[in-house]
Amino acid sequence: MRTIMAARSASEQIEICWGERRVVAELLRTERRSLRIDVRPTGEVAIFAPAGEEIDEIRSRACRKGAWIFAQIDTIAQRPKVTPKRRFISGETHLLLGRQYRLSIEQSDDPHVRLDGERLVVSARSTDDQAHCRRVLQVFYSLRAREVFRQRFDVVAEPFVRKGLKRPPLVIRPMSKRWGSFTPGGRVVLNVDLVRASPKLIDYVICHELAHAFHPDHGEGWRSLLDSVMPDWMSRKAELESSLR
């Protein structure tokens, strides 16, 4: 038996039940005309619903996705444990474009970052100031993200442009819970932290979001479009979610 209950609060929530299992999903109102359900890499569930849609209709539509939602949650639970929080000290390993580098903190009056073989060298004013080292490295990641993402965006967008899509603007910024999004205004937003992933996984996220220009939800039309443009998108998705936890 499948049931689903809803509760209203300042931030709306929906409790999704499938048999004896339950999960509380965050309900977010958007300007989109279609409903979308996301299971985040953390296992949290978010439902994006049109601003004017009745809660009973959202409940009914989300109910039909119960089996898929819990299958996604189970898949996430089986993945390796989340990487420990970074301390930004020498000896840590950090990812950049899918490769692991050993962090090396050096003192310098000219803060900057450079690659030296397998080392990611952070030159900082104080080697003991972890917050400062973190900021220096974040600036480096941000610059690399803007360079790489724009290059990959131009390549990945081509098949969609041939299908009639007007090339959308690209926005790169920090995002707390998502790798990317396609906004109601037609912009592609990418999480700057995605620069840790390999280029083929960056391509997947761009492709995922560009497909939403044609299909706002994750339904059959969206999946068919991804299959035609990137046949191995499902394996890339799984690799992304397991490698950047």
From TrEMBL:
Q: What name has this protein been given in UniProt?
A: M48 family metallopeptidase
Keywords for this protein: Plasmid
Name its species: Methylocystis parvus
List the Pfam families hit by this protein, alphabetically.
Answer: YgjP-like (PF01863)
* UniProt domain YgjP-like metallopeptidase: residue ranges: 33-242
CDD domains per the UniProt record, alphabetical = M48_yhfN_like (cd07344)
On the tree of life, the source organism's domain of life is Bacteria
Key word Methyltransferase present: no
